Amino acid sequence: MGKVLHDSESGQNLALEKTFHKGPWTSAEDQLLTAYVDKHGEGNWNAVQKHSGLSRCGKSCRLRWVNHLRPSLKKGGFTDKEEQRVIELHASMGNKWARMAAQLPGRTDNEIKNFWNTRLKKLQRLGLPIYPDEVREQAMNAAVQNGQNSDHHSQESLEPDCLEIPEFDFKYLQLNNYQSVLLRNAPMGNNMMKHCFFQPNNMYNLIGSPYMSPNRKRVREPETDFLDTGGYATNVQSGQLWNYPFVEGNAATYSSPSEKLELPSFQCCDPLGDWETQHSNPMPAVESDSTLVESPLTDCLSSGLLESVVYVNVN
DNA sequence: AAATAGCACAACCGCAATTGT
DNA sequence: GACAATTGCGGTTGTGCTATT
């Protein structure tokens, strides 16, 4: 890249201004950055280009180091255990990639984010639930317990700086009685019912956001776009407990101009009404990300948790 | 063989928080 | 306290590879 000319006010005097190289990193650049960090340590990233000869901005250097060059990074795909952990963490804290990465040694937020988004797309395309059955079961159990114990929202439990995340703690999940009844009374064979309930948005809206701390002020996106009715959400428009099918495939792309949902809401239907009716409606000829029905499980799926998700749906 | 879709990954961007002056 | 610089985070996009049609 090199340099770019910037017009001065008059447009006559052109000054050379340093710009930074973009795009994929070369091994030479990696070496320069690694050498710099070895010598000076992490941090002060804007000084890198000044002292190392790298023509990269500080942000880019930091990102490269954190995501690729750090010696502690784990290489290779996610193990089943790591997958499980990611799912649990996501169920617990949402799109808090950095926090999730802190719980997964050797993994970066970017890795986790990519993993999750890929997984999400895949599941959405298949019309499958985001969270495996066992995760949902745990959540439901916790929800039932919470129904008996209202002390789940203690100040202590909301302590923001408490980054220590329980193995899989759904104690923050809150369900009101109505939802609990719904869950308990859902027909056993009606997986759709359960799926609806534990789709991401719902899950998120069930969470008391314990990690969005008062101290840690970073509040970049609304925790929910739904009415907060005490730990769970209702659809603003319909007043129902369920979200309507969403249209865009990716969580990140599902947003209104003014506000963003943290997760996609591709939940199905009116749970109180005629799920059967809706479910029996002819579906669009072409399946898209906005298609919410469970599609025939003809796709070949990768091994691991995803398969288990498929399995529970088939049965 | 070419076109297309899906996937995995890398990197950039904008914004907000934090830190330094 | 105000401002600027730096850092960190999450969303998004681009690219290359592979599988499928």
From TrEMBL:
Record Pfam families: Myb_DNA-binding
PANTHER family in UniProt: BNAC03G26620D PROTEIN, TRANSCRIPTION FACTOR MYB33-RELATED
GO MF term set: DNA binding
Protein's UniProt name: Uncharacterized protein
GO cellular component terms given for this protein: nucleus
Subcellular location: Nucleus
Keywords: Activator, DNA-binding, Nucleus, Repeat, Transcription, Transcription regulation
Keyword Repeat carried by entry: yes
Domain HTH myb-type per the UniProt entry, residue ranges: 17-69, 70-124
Domain of life of the native organism: Eukaryota
BP-aspect Gene Ontology terms: anatomical structure morphogenesis; pollen sperm cell differentiation; positive regulation of DNA-templated transcription; regulation of growth
Location, primary (coarse class): nucleus
Keyword Transcription: yes
Sequence ranges assigned to domain Myb-like in this UniProt record: 17-69, 70-120
